[in-house]
Write a structure and sequence with these properties.
Largest sheet: none
Number of domains: 1
Order of helices and strands: HHHHHHHHHHHHHHHH
Distance between the termini: 28 Å
Length: about 325
Amino acid sequence: MNIWAPLKFLADWLTYGIFSIAHGSLLGEAVNFFIFDTVKILILLTVIIYAVSIIRSFLPPEKIRGILSRKYPFVGNILAALLGIVTPFCSCSAVPLFLGFVEAGVPLGVTFSFLVASPMINEVALVLLIGMFGWKVALIYIVSGLIISIVAGLIIGKLKVESLVEDFVYKHKIDATANIAEMSWQERHNYAIGYTLDIIKKVWPYILVGIEIGAWIHGYVPTDFLARYAGRDKWYAVPLATLIGIPLYSNAAGVIPLVSVLTEKGVSMGTTLAFMMAVTGLSLPEFMILKKVMKTKLILIFAGIVGIGIIFTGYLFNFVLK
């Protein structure tokens, strides 16, 4: 049973009935795609952020910092990357919590594992990938993202680059062992509702822009256009997609519709996901915020390590799913 069948009926009814757009027309294809994907993504986004918010109510930042401050080699990076998955932040909004980890005395390499994982492999992207492409694609995506996050953190930890973090960060140590207030289920529900609405308010413009671009590509771009320049036979497609994604800024929910459309147009899955990971995991606004807390050299090290990991993931997807 297709759970999205009623939504498809709604999109068809609005597009071809209410708006009276001709079946098979370019405009009709674009509008139908926009309605269907907008409602679908907003439903998925609301449900998953609410669920994750309930989980996060048991793991407030102080408790997370306390866990990560235990200097377990390697294990800390794994825990930080896993925590990054259940924190629905974009690259920019993950920076304040990253800063809090550093101030709490969490090892720098561990904090970078979180900084990479939080925007790159968040739960919204995972759920949308499952819905659009199935478990195989979603599992490869999450495993590769975790590996990138963990390895990036381990490398940065080994490089001993603490001197590249601005001095004021270390002058504001905070207590990561504060008592955690117990919350009732009603309080958790209220927190989750408030947090979900807050996130939706922040991300809906990115979602609409992403879907609008995806709808335009779906309806108006010739089938072979993107395949011609970033097709499966182009060896340079993955690094090119990664470079193009870095100057852009969005969250996974806004980029996923583009992933769906680009694959439909003949662009390989690895190439489109490399683009998505670059947009969500590496962005110029994120670098601008990081510049306030670390030196340019460390930002370049961070971007270089993550960029290489994204390119590797893109080629891996293309190899496994060819």
